[in-house]
Design a protein that fits this description.
Elements lengths: L1 H25 L20 H14 L7 H10 L3 H12 L8 H12 L4 H11 L7 H12 L6 H11 L2 H6 L9 H33 L2 H9 L22 H9 L16 H11 L10
Length: 292
């Protein structure tokens, strides 16, 4: 009997411990989610992002804000500036006072929410092109805007192909009928990474080639060398000319002789014989004709 009593007592103790543990766990509160930033003008932070974060916090930490008063008090604590000025009057008022946190969100929606998200997203989507941006950054913005647009996957694939930069389009020429938008985007991301690798290799190769072609010591040694006259045997290269039609004139040209006196040491337009003949003719007195 004593043994049975000991067993029964042991089981009762274990049952009591289990019940105590369950009660303790039931009283433990949920882990607090970080507070969203203070909403001021609806721009920074953006109202849509702020609204999602604070609503998720109220839902996940409902045990911390079990009453409407606690919920409204918490939301008001995350407001400032313009946002606070729209909410505070209805918290002080006795006639139009907020009764639930949903009423607070309705006022904030009317003030800060975009009344036509589709048009705003469509306008930004039309202006979106990759240009010099990283593809990952461009792709993230592409996805953000298309969430608001009701475009088919085929349309989005075609748009993505035309919105990437020229280098990407050239590399995607052989890419025909991709299986999905996500698969096509992954292909674009891989191509962009390969293009970046090639650009890095080119940036490393070009300076090395320039350094080998134009060495600093070459310029230094050339600067130190004094300039000297070329040797007497040096002859500059002669340009090709067609031979003269008159063989005699061609021979005089090859021998470096004057065309008039056939002597060396001067050219035809410098010939002293030619100048003397011209002077002689110009100083000759013509006979009178008798008509003077």
């Amino acid at each position: 009997m004593a043994g049975q009593a000991a067993v029964v007592k042991y089981l009762e103790n274990e049952k009591s411990k289990s019940s105590t543990t369950r009660n303790r766990e039931s009283h433990q509160k949920s882990t607090m989610i970080p507070d969203p930033p203070t909403l001021t003008d609806g721009i920074e932070p953006a109202y849509d992002d702020w609204s999602i974060k604070i609503k998720m916090k109220l839902e996940a930490n409902l045990d911390h804000f079990p009453t409407p008063a606690l919920q409204m008090g918490y939301v008001q604590s995350r407001l400032g500036g313009k946002a606070s000025s729209h909410i505070n009057p209805c918290l002080r008022s006795t006639q139009n006072k907020f009764q639930t946190v949903e009423e607070m969100f309705e006022v904030l929606d009317r003030v800060f929410s975009d009344p036509d998200r589709h048009f705003t997203a469509q306008r930004a989507y039309r202006k979106l092109f990759q240009n010099k941006d990283n593809f990952a950054t461009f792709w993230a913005e592409f996805q953000r805007l298309t969430v608001e647009l009701d475009y088919s996957e085929e349309t989005l694939i075609d748009d993505l192909h035309h919105k990437v930069n020229t280098k990407m389009q050239t590399a995607l020429i052989a890419e025909i009928n991709p299986s999905s938008l996500h698969a096509f985007a992954q292909k674009c991301l891989l191509i962009h990474q390969n293009i970046q690798k090639l650009q890095i290799q080119d940036a490393r190769t070009v300076p090395r080639v320039i350094q080998q072609a134009f060495k600093p010591q070459d310029f230094h040694s050339k600067a130190q060398q004094p300039t000297t006259n070329p040797p007497a045997s040096f002859r500059p290269p002669r340009l090709y000319r067609a031979p003269h039609q008159n063989p005699a004139t061609e021979k005089l040209m090859q021998e470096g002789r004057c065309f008039h006196c056939q002597q060396t040491g001067h050219r035809a337009y410098e010939c002293p014989t030619k100048n003397a003949q011209v002077h002689k003719v110009s100083t000759y007195d013509a006979p009178l004709s008798g008509k003077e």
